[in-house]
Amino acid sequence: MKDDLKEILLTEDEIQQICRQLGAEITKDYKGKDLVCIGILKGSAMFMSDLIKRIDTHLSIDFMDVSSYHGGTESTGEVKILKDLGSSIENKDVLIIEDILETGTTLKSITELLKSRRVNSLEIVTLLDKPNRRKADIEAKYVGRKIPDEFVVGYGLDYAEFYRNLPYVGTLKPEVYQNK
Ligand code: IMP
Ligand code: MG
């Protein structure tokens, strides 16, 4: 699997450093609040598990599954709710945890839906941000790393459902796409 990679963009150490930094900021901002962290499946699972260990305040977690991708490397612009939250978020301080913010289509629909549930506050933390790809009017309050417009895999991020189990983030060799 590792032979399919062209370049490593974020090492395991860099990812842990980002989690410590963001965790400290979030701890400071949410002291004494009723924090609910919502992971967007499946990509954010690894980031979420590392990040919340660095947040030193009472919090609960929940998950949502949406689909905007259909196996390829380009967003289709469509968002479908596959799994909704398990409990009410009314009056809660909600923090959405995402793996990557690209066009923003996914997070725009999710934030609009969650805001309509009368939350107290709603913010986004994303490990990666591709600002050059943005189409929707949306930004994350907490960003781990801004990256150029390149398709990345690993640490939760997939290409056709594979590579999520890599412990770091990298780009794939062009022949990997060509062979599909
Ligand atoms: P957006 O709606 O275009 O912002 O896309 C967000 C979703 O697309 C992310 O949650 C990922 O699942 C997926 N995605 C966007 N860019 C990449 C990438 O470079 N590698 C893997 N998945 C990606
Ligand atoms: Mg995702």
Automatic annotation (TrEMBL):
**UniProt keywords, alphabetically:** Cytoplasm, Glycosyltransferase, Magnesium, Metal-binding, Nucleotide-binding, Purine salvage, Transferase
Q: What is its EC number?
A: 2.4.2.8
Q: Which reaction does it catalyse?
A: GMP + diphosphate = guanine + 5-phospho-alpha-D-ribose 1-diphosphate; IMP + diphosphate = hypoxanthine + 5-phospho-alpha-D-ribose 1-diphosphate
Identify the InterPro entries for this entry.
Answer: HGPRT, Hxn_phspho_trans, PRTase-like, PRTase_dom
Query: Which Gene Ontology MF annotations are present?
Result: guanine phosphoribosyltransferase activity; hypoxanthine phosphoribosyltransferase activity; magnesium ion binding; nucleotide binding
Keyword Hydrolase included in the entry's annotation: no
Known function: Purine salvage pathway enzyme that catalyzes the transfer of the ribosyl-5-phosphate group from 5-phospho-alpha-D-ribose 1-diphosphate (PRPP) to the N9 position of the 6-oxopurines hypoxanthine and guanine to form the corresponding ribonucleotides IMP (inosine 5'-monophosphate) and GMP (guanosine 5'-monophosphate), with the release of PPi.
What pathway, per the record?
Purine metabolism; GMP biosynthesis via salvage pathway; GMP from guanine: step 1/1; Purine metabolism; IMP biosynthesis via salvage pathway; IMP from hypoxanthine: step 1/1
- Similarity field: Belongs to the purine/pyrimidine phosphoribosyltransferase family.
Q: Where in the cell is it found?
A: Cytoplasm
The protein's required cofactor(s) are namely: Mg(2+)
Q: Which Pfam families match?
A: Pribosyltran
GO CC, alphabetical: cytosol
According to UniProt, the name of this protein is Hypoxanthine phosphoribosyltransferase
Q: What class of enzyme is it?
A: transferase
Question: Its GO biological process terms?
Answer: GMP salvage; guanine salvage; hypoxanthine metabolic process; IMP salvage; purine ribonucleoside salvage
Domain Phosphoribosyltransferase residue range list: 13-159
- UniProt main location, coarse: cytoplasm
